[in-house]
Automatic annotation (TrEMBL):
InterPro entries: FapA_N (IPR046866). Pfam families: FapA_N. It comes from the Bacteria. Residues 25-47 are annotated as: Disordered. Residues 34-45 have a biased composition (Polar residues). Residues 46-123 form the Flagellar Assembly Protein A N-terminal region domain. This is Uncharacterized protein (DUF342 family).
């Protein structure tokens, strides 16, 4: 369908505007330097291993990367509690030390015993 009357002039005006914009030199945008280390943002994490007899808990710690969330002792204790580990048996100092080493060295810390159960004793 062919434009009629005033519509034809509008189409020509729009075309002229588009052409003039396309012909203009656009200033180059500045390139922002990437201040990150290039690592993906990954939260710190742990792997929890409960022994088959449920008397020992080993935890492996993995550091955060980039802007990921750092784990803290409370996070780890909560995760252990969710897995059924008695909070009174958790060695918070072992967790603190492992987390510190993990973050300070930006490397994993594996198989840290963070809880040990008390074996049952025979009654008299």
């Amino acid at each position: 369908m062919k434009p009629v009357g005033n519509e034809e002039q509008k189409d020509d005006s729009v075309k002229e505007i588009i052409e003039s914009v396309m012909e203009q030199d656009c200033p180059e945008l500045p390139v922002l330097e990437d201040s990150s280390s290039g690592e993906p943002d990954t939260n710190g994490s742990v792997e929890i291993h409960i022994s088959p007899d449920k008397m020992s808990v080993l935890v492996s710690f993995f550091p955060h990367l980039g802007n990921g969330k750092r784990l803290n002792t409370g996070d780890v204790v909560s995760l252990l509690s969710e897995r059924g580990v008695d909070r009174s048996l958790v060695n918070r100092e072992a967790i603190d030390n492992a987390l510190w080493t993990c973050e300070e060295d930006s490397s994993s810390v594996k198989d840290v015993e963070v809880a040990r159960g008390i074996p049952p004793r025979r009654g008299r």
